[in-house]
Amino acid sequence: MSETLPSIGEMLAATVPMVRTLNLEFLDATAERAVLRLPDQPDFHNHVGGPHAGAMFTLAESASGAIVLAAFGDQLSRAVPLAVRAEIGYKKLAKGQVTATATLGRPVADILAELDAGQRPEFPVKVAITREDGDVTGEMTIIWTLRPNS
Q1: CA distance 66 to 26
Q2: Fewer CB atoms near the end CB (10 Å): N or C, the chain?
Q3: Nearest partner of 36 among 146, 149, 125, 147, judged by Cα
Q4: Is residue 125 part of a domain?
Q5: What CDD domains does the annotation carry (predicted)?
Q6: In this structure, is residue 40 part of a structural domain?
Q7: Strands 122-131, 136-148: pairing kind
């Protein structure tokens, strides 16, 4: 992004209220990966003192949205990115701040080729949620689509 255009993190914070509510921090957002952090905030803890499952879901979904915007933001004039479905697995107890790292599950060129052919491509975004010691506390897969504009 150029200096005059807002960053992906700024765009998501401006347009997605939950990003602001949870104070998500954008560490990296490229077409290869997006990394967001959820600070440790007692207001968003669960009954065992870690981040609430809903906050971790929002963190992971937001990381997936950041990579989708980084990869396909230049296509917004012809298609709208939409999350279609998501599945999350909570693996270990999370405590403290947690970080979500998202990666695209298909090559950008393949997805754009489907869009160019008049199709509505679907593609997975995989997200790993880790705690400060590096252990994976959750894994999420979000299926996204690029819905062509009418």
Answers
A1: 9
A2: C
A3: 125
A4: yes
A5: PaaI_thioesterase
A6: yes
A7: antiparallel
Percent of the chain as helix, strand, coil, to the nearest 5: 30, 35, 30
Other Cβ atoms within 10 Å of 85 Cβ, number: 10
Residue entry with tokens 């290869």:
32
Cβ atoms of 62 and 24 closer than 8 Å: yes
For residue 118, being part of any structural domain is answered with yes
72, part of any domain: yes
pLDDT tens-digit readout, 35-64:
999 999 999 999 999 999 999 999 999 999
Q: State the CATH number of the domain containing residue 75.
A: 3.10.129.10
- 110 vs 5: CA distance, rounded Å: 27
Query: How many domains, in total, are found in the chain?
Result: 1
Contacts of residue 77, Cβ cutoff 8 Å, sequence gap at least 6? 149
State pLDDT tens for residues 86-116. 999 999 999 999 999 999 999 999 999 999 9
Q: If residue 11 lies in a helix (H) or strand (E), which one and from where to where?
A: helix 8-15
Range of the domain at 76: 8-148
Helix (H, G, I), strand (E, B) or coil at 14: helix
